[in-house]
Amino acid sequence: MAAVRAQLADLIAAQRSLLVASARSGGLCQLRTRSLPDRVTREAEGFVKLVERALAEAPPARLLSLVREQVRQGSFACASKEVGAVFKLWRQLFEVAVARSSAARRVLERVCDELEALVRQELRSWQARRFDLVVVGASAGGVTALEALLASLDVDLPVSLLLVLHISQRAPGVLPLVLARHAKLSVAYAVEGACLLLGQAYVAPPGRHLITQGCEMRLLKGPPVNHVCPSVDVLFESAASVHCRRLISVVLSGTGRDGAAGTVAVREHGGVTLAEDPKTAQFAGMPESAVATGATMHTMPLAEIGPALSRMIARGRAAGRE
Question: Which residue range forms the structural domain that includes residue 8?
Fold first, then answer.
């Protein structure tokens, strides 16, 4: 049996590219609705490597660690009801790959059963601790602050980011292009009714309040809040009511008080709240107002915020409260 498993591991490794392409054409993109095609490809590659390690009989602790990585930031990041359908697709692909050997099919079926059980177990444990969304507000000095923050975040970040920057409605509509210059992840304007995709940053367009509804974005025409539209408070309060404990808010450089009430809302709904250190912010008004509410859990220099977010997202709520 060990020889069969070793041969299977080699066979799967040799066919990795074909299996990944087949998974995409077989509907994996439709199952992983919050992942763009490039991300689906990376997720599929990670899953095939996981199967290879399982076939090679990795030590139980090591296999569990690999499953945890796939659940937290890989092929099952933010997964829920689609897990069974994803495994069904992979079982069909593996069956074709080893169609000539009934013994090999049985071994692969057992490995898939074992991995599915481990994935579901880890998902149950991770559900209450994971973060799904990061909301960020800024004003004066915000372009520089957002550029620095986005540059420090990885493309495979298993959350979505929503950004509000106070900007004139008469300004050229190039803010996403400006922010994307040094960013690893994709940056675009928020679009009415669009799904929140993992590893993507969305910017509220001028003159529209940005809110969330489930895993979708909504753009609202409405009066200014705190004298601005879009408003940080509107975004934070909306996201807090929907995402609750799975939300992280960040207030960066800016003048005025926008974001203070939203920070309170995020904290009251169980989310984690951050602010740029007013002493090091280019404009201290917004972070000072957020900190003055007493609802800000973490205050730090701009250079530390990106790494802190990455750590919290990777480790879950325990890291968020450290």
Answer: 2-127
